[in-house]
Specification:
alpha/beta, Rossmann fold, UDP-N-acetylmuramoyl-L-alanine:D-glutamate ligase, Protein-Tyrosine Phosphatase, Chain A, 6-stranded mixed sheet, 24 strands, globular
Length: 473
């Protein structure tokens, strides 16, 4: 459906919009929506990626490298917290008096007029948002969506302009930008007490941000939250007298309760009961108990939105995952290669538990890259303990995403904390050496999993090429 361009994001016009960091998963999703609505979109980023290629195919003008001239005739510039004030395009926008808006403000604007559903949480929000989107599409609702990952479908995409009333988005709590949204309904999968403390400062501030998020839900809307998580339960207690609250989980107190969860290499099944009444048996095409919980969050949200239970369960059965969430990259030399975004100890632990089932009789070999110096320093022991579930572990150096190096903090801290015998854990600081090391190590029937939010994601394709005989050591 072609839709007119929204008039403003706050006071900013959204007819000619420039995105600094257009290749980012969040930025590119909003840009896709605006392009579908007829806006003129431009942007820039430091290097090429698949998101930029897709935006160009849709008509956007995206530059590689940042320069004042890239702004062209833009009237509004969209930024995120990752864009520094000294960025030449941002400086030029301010010099010219152009409107400068945060990514979340632009997202809130394109959601306006739709029935907005925002999915947040420390762990599982991308998968839950994706599952809810696929489920809703299976029910024939044709939702709009913006997700922090590309769906594994025939036409992979992180965003789409739909013709229905629903607008489903992944909400970012890391920098509190989800507080710019005013959804009709919200999902909070869980709240890890010590995540994103580099930006929030304390666990109390982090928990309080979710309470403020719940305050932004429409009075006629609802909150779906995890019943098995202590942080989410605190939020439930806070929100119950402000908005309708529904819970999911294996806890006997959950409104939508899971039982008999079974994980196999090709998927996960469970029984579900809503207020004690059995629903059709649920199956999803991805393995993991954590994935069962994510799907339960999506299913409960769908039921609260009024979607029929049988079609909702059928919609979940068609879900095939999202990029970088235990994404199958290929097989060569009898070695299966997967890639995952896990960058928090809980995520690593749960994903390795699922990967162990998929690995079967083969060994589970993991290449892990810590994402931040602050989280590496704080959680080195927890990361090490989680990685101990693998048979062999390679730890890369810390990804230099948004922090300056901290003296004495490196991937070696994590490697030293992995409780495996000597020789089965290695610290490999140079990314270029990881794929050759894995190729030397991996044997037929082994499963290799690359994990982390940095350039470790590039290792899988290189490993497959080496294993395929084009340069194996």
């Amino acid at each position: 459906m072609k839709e007119s361009v929204p008039t403003t994001a706050g006071d900013a016009p959204l007819d000619r919009v420039h995105f600094i960091g257009a290749g980012g998963i969040g930025m590119s999703g909003i840009a896709r929506i605006l392009l579908a609505r007829g806006a003129t979109v431009s942007g820039s980023d430091a290097k090429e990626n698949a998101n930029i290629t897709a935006l160009r195919a849709l008509g956007a003008r995206v530059h590689i490298g940042h320069a004042a001239a890239n702004l062209g005739q833009a009237r509004t510039v969209v930024v995120s917290n990752a864009i520094p004030e000294h960025n030449p395009e941002l400086r030029e926008a301010r010099r010219r008096g152009l409107a400068v808006v945060h990514r979340a403000t632009a997202l809130a604007s394109v959601m306006a007029g739709r029935r907005g559903v925002a999915v947040a949480g420390t762990v599982g929000k991308t998968s839950t948002t994706s599952m809810l989107t696929v489920l809703a599409r299976g029910c024939g609702t044709d939702p709009s969506y913006v997700i922090g990952g590309n769906l594994n479908e025939s036409e992979p995409s992180n965003a789409r302009q739909g013709g229905g009333e629903l607008f489903i988005v992944e909400a970012d709590e890391s920098d509190s930008s989800f507080l710019r949204l005013s959804p009709d309904a919200a999902v909070v999968t869980n709240i890890g007490a010590e995540d994103h403390l580099d930006l929030h400062g304390s666990a109390e501030n982090y928990a309080r941000a979710f309470e403020r998020f719940a305050d932004r839900i429409a009075a006629t809307g609802f909150l779906v939250a995890g019943a098995d998580d202590a942080g989410a339960n605190r939020l439930v207690r806070y929100a119950r007298d402000k908005v309708r609250v529904r819970t999911f989980g294996e806890s006997p107190t959950a409104d939508l309760r899971l039982s008999d969860v079974a994980v196999t290499p090709d998927g996960t099944t469970y029984k579900a009961f809503l207020d004690g009444v059995p629903l059709p048996p649920v199956r999803i095409g991805v393995p993991g108990r954590h994935m069962a919980l994510n799907s339960a969050a999506a299913l409960l949200t769908a039921l609260e939105l009024g979607l029929p239970a049988d079609r909702a369960v059928e919609g979940l059965a068609s879900y095939r995952g999202v990029h970088r969430r235990f994404e199958y990259k290929g097989e060569a030399g009898g070695v299966r290669v997967y890639d995952d975004y896990a960058n928090f100890p809980t995520k690593v632990r749960e994903q390795l538990r699922a990967a162990r089932v998929v690995a079967g009789p083969g060994r589970l070999i993991v290449a892990f890259q810590p994402s931040l110096f602050s989280s590496t320093q704080r959680f080195a022991a927890e990361f090490g303990a989680a990685l101990g579930a693998a048979d062999e572990v390679l730890v890369l150096d810390v990804s230099r995403a948004r922090e300056k190096p901290v003296p004495g903090v490196s991937g070696a801290l994590v490697a030293d904390a992995v409780p495996l015998p000597a020789g089965r854990v290695r610290y490999v600081p140079a990314t270029s050496e990881v794929a050759p090391a894995l190729a030397e190590l991996a044997l037929p029937d082994d499963l290799v999993l690359t994990m982390g939010s940095g350039d470790v994601t590039l290792v899988g394709p290189e490993l497959l090429a080496l294993l395929g005989g084009r340069g194996r050591p």
